[in-house]
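Changelog excerpt

This revision adds worked examples to the README so contributors can see how folded entries look when concatenated. The first example is reproduced verbatim below.
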Amino acid sequence: MPGRHLNQVQIDDLLTYVGVTKRRWKVNGDSCQFCCPIHKESRPSCGVSASLQLFHCFSCSAAGTFDYFLHKALPDEFRNMKQAAEFIRSQYNVDVSLFNDEYLERIMRYEDFYNKEETPRKVKPLHSIAPFRGGEETYQYFYDRGFDDGMLEWFRVGYDTLHRTVTLPVFWEDYTLAGVIGRYIYPRSKAERYKVYDGFMRGDLLFPIDKVVHDGEVVLVEGVFDALRLYQYGHRNVLATMTSSLTPTQVKWLANNTDSVVLMYDNDTQGYNATQKVIRQLKSHVNLHVVSYPDRPEAKDPCDLTRKEVQAMLNTKRSHYSKVIARL
């Protein structure tokens, strides 16, 4: 009797059949990411789940079962889903047309997480950052914190003379402008360190999503200046949440684009609480690692760390689960 599920080897074979030449399986072996063969993209935004027996493309929004995937990827060869289902049955002895209540429940859980209607991407014109030009106060603020001219230029750092903030433009992955965030040079309190311009929705993306380079692992920090510090030290796999917790959109991006996340939130009570919240949000999607700050009182966040301290923290990162076991 035919089975109901394609295993990883069979899914790999099916992907090869439709022309997918490169794919990256997550370490748990359940899902992989690749360039969508339906709309012929060049950057991978499509994925499959072995446990759910479903595929989903975050770019063209195509999603469904493997017979639908085969039909959409090769419409000239498989003119309908029935032909695709018959091919899968004959090729792999798997009947994808058989459903039961548990299988349908899995699909509903999948759709709850991945297929929520999202707010359309908001793009601002580049001239929005034209008024924010670097000045003496901006440069001194950066130099005092160990940054150099290269960082000022690379991140297009500016200065708002009215509000006296150092400004940072935030871009989407395709380098279009999402918004501007500012850091007060003379903040009245820790809670008022940042100014968000024009109602910019920080939770729509991570910073700097247009510059991040990673091979399955991302270091997650709280603030944009924490990210700048690690970039200054040569780490390109760093992203800042810009908020104390992750939004569903940010969780979705991390779940679909990374295998492992290293949490390097602030070294205080607020940072600890934020870390625990992010762990709850991500633990079912990626492998999680935590770090230990050096034992000196002034090491409050990544901006207070030296290059060697950051590297030592990353070298000694620990799995979140091993840390839990050690406590027990």
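The second example, added in the same revision:
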Amino acid sequence: MGSYEGIKMIKTFRGKLADGGQDKIFLRTIKGEIGYRIVKFQTIGPDNNTTFENVVKIFKIKQSTIDANIDFTDGDLLGATLTEGSGTSGVTGFKPVIFDKEIVNQNIFITNKGTTSINYYLELEQIKLNDNESTMATLQSMRQVAEQ
């Protein structure tokens, strides 16, 4: 039999967010020994008949305010996309940006602000963390929550 060493474990999530909506992606484990890195983030409008413009963002912590402002200096931001489309020409713009070096071991949150609901698809690479990495990721998450 072949070895499974080196095979990437990918978790996928998909959903539909209303304008102003927020979804929680459950990732947290008891010991925090599993980390995740975003490898793919895509959005698509609700149908071919709607003209829309939406900003969808992924955060390390729950957001109290959901807006369309994108700030790459926000330490809680893991990724963002601007998706535009019209009923006559389909999706006319899709611009995802993900910070693929960020590793999280706690729950993450996806928000949508725009003119309509939007579908999202997210792929996360599962990474086994050693004790030091696990502790570091958990402490960073706790520090970010405390700063809120």
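Reviewer comment on example two: The mean pLDDT is 83. The first strand starts at residue 9 and ends at 17.
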